[in-house]
Structure formats: C-alpha cells, structure tokens
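To make this tangible, we now present a fold written out as tokens:
***
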Amino acid sequence: MRSCLHDPNRRHRCRRLYWQQHRQGTECARIDDIIAVDDLTQGDKFRNLADLKISDYIDASVFYDMFAQGSFGQIEAVFHEGACSDTMETNGKYMMDNNYATSVGLFQACQKRGARLLYASSAATYGGSDTFREDPAFERPLNVYGYSKLLFDQRMRRECGVDFQRSLAGKTGQVVGFRYFNVYGRANSTKAAWPVSRITSSTSFRPRGRSSCLATTAATDRAHKCAISFHR
C-alpha cells in the first residue's frame, strides 16, 4: 500500500500519522510505502524527517503535477497536511492560493487517480462562534486563514453532495476533513512566531479582525468531535 504524506508546515501532525501507521497490531501497520512531500528550503526542518522511515521524498513544488500525471503509480491515500498555517497572515491572495486553490487541485487529482484524500481543515472555521459543531450555522471565521479553510470545506460539501449522496453513490472517492486546533509543541520549533501567539488571548485580536485561533478549555473538550467525513 502506497500513501503520500504532504506536510510543508505541519510536521508534528505527519509524525503522529506516521507513528500511528506503524503501530504493531493495527490495520495501519500494513502501510509501509510512504512518500514524504515537503519543502526543505528552511534546511533545519530536516530534523523532523530524519528519524522516519520513508520510501521516497518529493519536493512540494513538483509533487502536484507529478501526482496528477500518475508518476507515482497507484496511491491509495493522500494525507494533505500542508498549508499556510500562519493565522496572522494578511495576504489574502497568498493564503487562498496555498490553502484553497492548491487543495482543490489535489482533490481533483485524487479523484482522477482513485486515491482517498484526508486533509487538514481547521477549528479556525468556527472563529467567533462559541459552539464547535460541524454545522454552517456555527462557522464564523475571523481571518483569511479561517476563511480559506472554510471555503475548501464548503467545496467538499458541494462535491460530495448533501448527506454524502454523491459519495455513497460511488461518484466521488472518500474525502475526510479534520478540524484541528492549533497547538505549539514538539516539531514546531521552526515556527518562531508561535511561542508568542500561543500565550496570547485570541480575544485580543478581534477588534482588528484577527484571531490566534487557539483552543480554549471548552474547545479542547470538544476537539474529538471536530472531524468532518464526506464519505461514510
């Protein structure tokens, strides 16, 4: 079984995915052919890959076209954890290119190649809401980062149909979105700004239309519920 882990920014998540895939006695343990996709322009990021056993490494700048063309043979699943994850970024064009347009292209390639797509959404889609439920009524992003993630979620809802009708009918492959809460910890040392933002109250940014999108205690309690599956 061959799978791709795409993670230019979220190395701690892909490390966790990799660890889960190699736990003895689990269904995921059979995954032993993993292509890592990353951007190592910032060279010290290699440390987050050095102790992982992967079958190949592909630079993110060439991966999308190569994957769409079938250069890697049959890929069973793509774990798409890559995005601009800086919640303080104000360049909307850059954010939409990275987080929305690139994800749409990858979804289309996965459908063409028969690969499952498991991707990183974000709890930032809830923004100003005090209810963390996968329901459009509670989706109120406060910044362009949250909006870029929400827009792709909405696109997947349209592609997969209401109540998964298109997916259940076999017209689309499996798509799963995970609404992560941003945390700072191991394997995030390359993100210099995060130690500051993680201890800053998100409410302090609201007058300027920004939010650090960090989990509150209530949000953490509900984190296990914040996954969207577009194919049962």
